[in-house]
Amino acid sequence: MSGSVDRARRTDLATRYWLAAAIPAVLVLSALLPEAALSLPGLHLTDAGVVLVVFLGSLKLGADRFRRAWRRIDLVVLSLVAAFALAPLASLALARVLGLGSPEDSLAVLVCAANGSTLATAVVLTEVAGGDTALAMVMTVVNTLLSVVLTPLVFLVLGGAVVDIDAPSMIADMACKIVLPLLAAQVARRWLAKWAALHARKLSVASQIVILSYIWTGGAAGLAAMAGRGGVLLARVVALVLVLHAGLLVVNAIVARLAARDPGQRVAFVLCSSQKTLPVAMMLWKGYFPALPLGPLVAVAYHVTQLVVDSILAPGALRLPLVRSKEERR
Known about the structure:
By secondary structure, this protein is mainly alpha-helical. The chain contains 15 helices and no strands.
């Protein structure tokens, strides 16, 4: 009996920590095979990854889990405040401190900071951390759909710029990538619920492979964005994204401790409220601010930072002091 328990424990640890252990190799792969990595979005493989992650994650969750998640609408609203108020304001303040306070630099920083959460990464890492995956999905859906209104509002109020997002097209795109796979998985649970429970670890590994593909692509994009940049500018951007993401993680963890008793809900809130989606940032830059070379650099740097840092933190997130008190960890 003890042998089988030990094997199960080792399997669980491997499932939770292998993603973080694989990151260095994937970053090396980004440097060795950048062209292959950068070809993935053009082949729509990153979009397919989002659909796969949402479907596999939803397949393991019953409708009751989503109903419980919707009852925490207060956390969903707080996540919107963190994503569309705290993050933009903090990013602009940090940019000024680091000498990136010109109007053009501010707009470039908002290209990243005025966006909503990631479509897949926060959900997968919430699962890796043992958090409330259903709540993470609900936050992601609401965050993404409302970004068509909130992102232009942030640009108007903080940047003085008018951004006219094609709301119907973006909502349709998000519905195809998130809502439809989620609903399809709930229907498929009629026949696949037991199979999903039996193969939960394998499904989790499949989702984590998708995240590694994002790290591969993000690493290659980061190297491309940094090529030819001055050392001082790169240092400022790296400092900006590191301090910003670390600060968001800490502040959102404190808010989560105050607003939620359940540690799993806290983890979901912290990850969904601290991450930023790269595809929307690049769409904004190409469509509205192509003359600002700093825009994609900040967005890609933050993307890589959140992928690497959060993938390392996620397996032990429930043991972090800001997530669980000493009494809760006993």
